[in-house]
Design goal:
single chain; 326 residues; Rossmann fold; six-stranded parallel beta sheet; 15 helices; 12 strands; elongated
């Protein structure tokens, strides 16, 4: 089987994980950025049996113009829910064109159904965790002080500013609280300035974008994982933190609600640093261990990427079959 993987970029974590999974399953794969001037020619030369394209929007619109065969459309979550979602008419056209839709959480599945998708044309699965790799990471706890970690990109969508404000508020009750701010982006300079204004220079460390092993270590070495994202699918970093036994405090959005509830962690309203700080403080209590264990068990049962990715060839054949029947 041959599959062409088309996206606006092919160097992000999700892109690379899909490509690795397809190749590991024996599918011959071609990865092409949709901005390529020779997209149609490259598809013609490669002659794929099926194309996977996403996120929904400009990518799927461009692919539909040059490819008439079996198509798997992949929603990245933000393209259909949240402040950056695409126009409904553009989403509907992509859904009608697709033989199969990949979605990673229930909120996105509900949205594509609202937009006209057929239930038999949807494959919902978490873009899960490499539990074998996670199992090699140990909670060393080299930090003697209670530690919060944020690992979202420094872009407006992820609202890292609310996370930093929450840390400042929580420090009023836990003066030795420290924080690790991983990631980078267009708001890094602003976020560093915010931390300085809030008097956090000695307690917040900006460590930049981390390699996967370093991110695993930072998550495992922290007491609380904090995310104030405005919208999300099933966040891989959240799932990794859960799998590592790190207590999780995240914004109350549909993508997070599928994983974090009163049994597995703490949530707070979007954009509310006071409630986020309260969640951090609650997570630092002994009760946090029970919720962390429940969270790790949920990820092991429902978000094992090795098991999920093993389904990909069968899903591709399903898409090809639907295309042949239409």
């Amino acid at each position: 089987m041959r599959l062409a993987y088309l996206s606006d970029r092919i160097d992000r974590t999700h892109d690379l994980r899909f490509l690795d999974a397809w190749e590991a399953s024996g599918v011959e794969t071609l990865a092409v950025p949709v901005g390529s001037a020779h997209l149609e020619r490259e598809l013609g030369r490669f002659a794929p049996d099926v194309v996977q394209a996403g996120p929904i929007g400009a990518v799927t619109a461009a692919v539909s113009q040059v490819w008439q065969g079996a198509l798997i459309v992949t929603s990245w979550g933000f393209d259909l829910i949240g402040p950056d979602r695409v126009d409904a008419s553009l989403a509907e056209r992509a859904i009608r064109r697709a033989e199969l839709l990949f979605v990673d959480n229930l909120a996105v599945e509900r949205r594509v159904l609202e937009l006209g998708a057929e239930p038999t044309g949807i494959a919902r699965f978490a873009w899960g965790v490499d539990l074998a790799r996670i199992g090699l990471t140990r909670r060393a706890r080299s930090n003697p002080a209670p530690t919060v970690v944020s690992a979202r990109s420094h872009e407006p969508l992820y609202d890292v500013g609310t996370a930093i404000r929450a840390i400042a508020i929580a420090r009023r009750s836990v003066p030795d609280l420290r924080a690790i701010i991983a990631g980078d982006g267009s708001e890094t300079v602003h976020l560093r300035g915010l931390a300085h204004e809030l008097g956090l220079d000695d307690s917040v460390e900006f460590v930049g974008r981390l390699a996967q092993t370093d991110l695993d270590a930072a998550l495992a070495d922290s007491d609380v994982y904090l995310s104030a994202s405005l919208t999300d699918g099933s966040s891989i970093t959240l799932l990794e933190a859960m799998a590592l036994g790190t207590r999780c405090c995240v914004s109350d959005i549909p993508g997070n609600a599928e994983w974090i509830d009163e049994r597995t962690g703490w949530t707070f309203p979007v954009g509310d640093p006071t409630r986020a700080a309260a969640g951090i403080l609650a997570a630092l209590n002994p009760e946090g261990d029970d919720r962390a264990r429940a969270a790790a068990a949920r990820v092991a049962a429902e978000a094992d990427w090795a098991q999920t990715s093993a389904r990909l060839p069968a899903l591709a054949r399903h898409a090809i079959g639907r295309g042949a029947a239409s």
